[in-house]
Amino acid sequence: MSPVVSVNSDLRQELKDRAARFRDRMTSQGTLVVNLVSSPGAGKTSLLQQSAKELSSNHRLAVLVGDLATNRDAERLAQTMPAEQLTTGGACHLEIPLVEAGFVRLSEQTPDILFIENVGNLVCPASHDLGEHLRVVLLSTTEGEDKPGKYPKMYRTSDALILTKMDLLPYVPFDVEFAIADAHAVQPQLKIFQTSATKGEGISQWCEYLRQLCQQLKSGNLPSHVR
Amino acid sequence: MSPVVSVNSDLRQELKDRAARFRDRMTSQGTLVVNLVSSPGAGKTSLLQQSAKELSSNHRLAVLVGDLATNRDAERLAQTMPAEQLTTGGACHLEIPLVEAGFVRLSEQTPDILFIENVGNLVCPASHDLGEHLRVVLLSTTEGEDKPGKYPKMYRTSDALILTKMDLLPYVPFDVEFAIADAHAVQPQLKIFQTSATKGEGISQWCEYLRQLCQQLKSGNLPSHVR
Hints:
homodimer, alpha/beta, seven-stranded parallel sheet, 8 helices, 7 strands, 17% strand
């Protein structure tokens, strides 16, 4: 008879369970968890800097910042909200144990919104639940409008799409309608925002959306399309 | 006594060996293999379209195009050279078996240059040898100058860096000198090109570099910094 060999087949399930428990805990304490994913350089850090200006007067914010190496993004964000760098040491995405470990180091333990800025990667982070309530994918106008169909899992698993760098539209070949149609073909429920962090365009609408979700979370009425 | 269980521990070494054999075979037949890597939307396809215009009069070209889904890039490139799409079905990088399988489908079996356009991902493709002679990383000016330090393995394993979308410099905050210094801090031997596919800037220098490498390959004198 062949021996039965256990090869950690439950590791993925264990991570999913830990993520679900983290989300439940954040729900209980009234913290909305927002996981930002995108290609490198799509503007996650700049979006957070602008969002903090608008939200921080009425909301306690905090951010966990994922990168393979360096503290560059956490240093940028620490000027606007409590920030902790999560350095993966080369790994291509964040996982829930790193998020849990980073969270306990934050000086703000009961934020209204906990942002997680994922590693810049349009593929691998799609497969990892970080205990977020909301997954938000960013697409910059400089990347081209064909990305949703080419990277479908990231769009399929996201709740909102933020088009960034809209101020560069006059200078780049980017078909906004195609991008939106391509994204909705993959995920019809995607909420879409058009923004420019340098010009401030669209930031208010995005922040208003977060404000509403915060209220809905605290009153136990988070919409069903948000996990 | 515990049973000894083989868990494919040699799989990575087997892939490395296959990549080395593919490279040797391409060297023997005088084909320079160029692996292009970058974030999604940095301009790999556009660079290849412009390069083909300049190189195709004197060089036989072919391209293998990696994507998670869709044939969009192969369709764009098929207008300029024999092109085969490699669809990973969701995987975040190409591996040598997919390259081998794609190569035999190409209508051009003895190109002077075989381009491999990798999946848009600044992390995972760094760890996979595709049998290339030259690994080229692209960084678009719209991504920000801080990427080399944040994604060091990709830069450390590359032979050349192409700055793309230089025509957008007037509209984006991008410090060219910082980007070059940051890249050279990671990999001092990186050959650097500054290009704009839409304006044609820098394409000649890049193509001249490829022409020289083609000659050196055929005469058995490929420089030592190129693998």
